[in-house]
Trehalose-6-phosphate synthase
Amino acid sequence: MRMTLRFALPLLLILGGITWAASPLMANLVDRWFRGDVESHAQLLFDSLKDSLTGDLTEDQIATLISRINGDKHLLALGLCTPEGQLTRRSAGWPPPLGCPATPPDRGRAFTKGRLKSGPILTSAFALPSQGPTSGYLVFVHDLRFIDDRSRWAEAYTVGLFALLATVAVAVAVLITRLTMRGWVKAVREGLANTADARLPPSPEIASLVGDVQKMLRDGEGQREPSEMIRVDWTADSLKHLLKTELPDAEVIVVSNREPYIHNDVDGEIRIQRPASGLVTALEPITRACGGIWIAHGSGSADRRSVDEKDHVAVPPDAPSYVLRRIWLTDEEVEGYYFGLANEGLWPLCHIAFIRPAFRAADWQHYVAVNRKFADAIVAEAKSPNPLVLVQDYHFALVPKMVRESLPDATIITFWHIPWPNPEMFSICPWREEILSGLLSSSILGFHTQFHCINFLDSVDRFLECHIDREHSTVTTGASTTLIRPYPISIEWPAAALAGQPDIAGCRKAVYAKFNLSEDIRLAIGVERFDYTKGIPDRFRAVESLLENHPEWIGRFCLLQIAAPSRAQLAAYQAVQVEAQDVARAINDRFGRDGWQPIILIARHHDAAEICTLFRAADLCVVTSLHDGMNLVAKEFVAARDDDDGVLILSTFAGASRELLEALIVNPYDIRGMGEAIHQGLSMSSDQRRDRMRLMREMVAEYNIYFWAGRMLMDAARIRKRQGIEKPLDNGEPI
Ligand code: F6P
């Protein structure tokens, strides 16, 4: 309707203007046209009479004349005038006030327009034939009222015609516009839908539009809500302040599978390990700031020895600020719940890495039992009826529902750290309804990107009976409503690992010495868990492609790949390790010379400080995950580069690519494209590197982990306040 008006109004205005200008012109034209007719008619009449006329007309002649013109309905009267302008004879209809025309006829005739009370008239005067000087004039008086009538009709027809024209023009314009718009929208939709498929680029006409829309979406993925427009420097202190003011007395309980501190027995000594886990990297500073309790699986060999009788241990060990509560699992439980359902079922289900998910009923039983164990621990640890429970990840899809049964007033924020698949993919899970309804007992369910939220809503839409409000992004099942929102996770800023780091030159020197690299070598770094979703073998193949297509880098480039062993008892993980090692060996055999190797693969765990030093020493960081919820390595690299230097190569299938737009974005399935991106990164001017890195640093600094948590807590605070308002009074009336 709006679009119709947008087209119709200007068109109508234009056509109305034309009509307004054209209708008097039309009337004038009609007037002149018919007056000309009357004049010709008068001339014809006179010509037909003139032979029978002489200078002195007798009464009989006049009577004959009058009888001959009686049939002419537009002729009012006739009269005779002397050459001096005296009216000597006139017919009965001669208008009384009318005299002879003042001016003698020019070339024997004259036409004069006049107006009587009854309407417009025309007098036509013709010189009568004579032997000598003119003997007088014959004068006809014509009634012109019919011309007025016809002018009015002409005016009305003109307006009518233009109105019809305007209607048809508007209808045609709107139709054409609608069809064109529909075509454009379809083409842009297809362009956007194919965006991840390099084989189906958008058509050239819409390519730039699709690009703009994608950029806007990426910008939008930063989720700037009105409240976020007010720039706040998010720090541990501002988060504490937020908790105190917005969520007073809220008891914080964090739940995850992986624990933030692992106590291991190394040769009879207890050593504390920080796990290679994005979840822990992100959540630990938050929990330090908020205090409370973190419930996790005690997986370290010395974990039992390090807890009190309640299975509690205060952490961080050097400056305790919260309690870690450990849950003990049997080997069978770990096998079924963690390796089985979580990592052989849900992990490949949610990541597009073309590894077939395995769903075994026995694993599901363990998953349910372990979720129950954690839920019971949450309920047991809760000191209030409405704690703030932060449930982490795909290990605990059933926990929100189980907790809600015992603590109906709890505020449960669940964060899903990995992607959410589309409904087709999700439909293969035999326990899809249980998983969805388990999650929908959360007050808030968060994903990294809007795209994953949409996939989740579509899955709910497909498999559950509920009300979905897409405008507010909520799902209501029975009496409970869950807010589904994107909260792109981030890291601590400034990174704690930066403390005590040597300057960039110092880091470079140390790393080059450690790995025996000559000074002219340009260094790329890759850091991840040894996981098939990370695309490590493909990254190695990209190095091969670089050396094939840009041989100038042979002997001058090295990729140092750190891969922390992970879930190594699973076949798919063993396979990717073997594949990566084989590919690295083959490439090193092919190109290596004089002690130089293009790929150094180190499959062991490194701590945060070691990794930070590697980031600071490198020219490039390569993150080429086949699929990744966010990928915090990309953000950690950016945070480590306080010299504003270094190039980030980033997979388009990592959530981080929606925020770190200044990285060189690559398709990890396009080996040659990745090789070219490495070449581009190595060849980039220092100004370019600096400009890009500065923008990425601004992004990570502003949207840091405190911002991530702050947004969720603000949403939680709003929900709690609303629940408070809606709570019935003693008399049963809502406030
Ligand atoms: O990415 C999903 C995730 O659970 C992260 O949250 C964490 O960084 C990683 O996997 C670690 O996996 P795990 O705890 O199984 O070693």
Summary: The two ends are 42 Å apart (CA to CA).
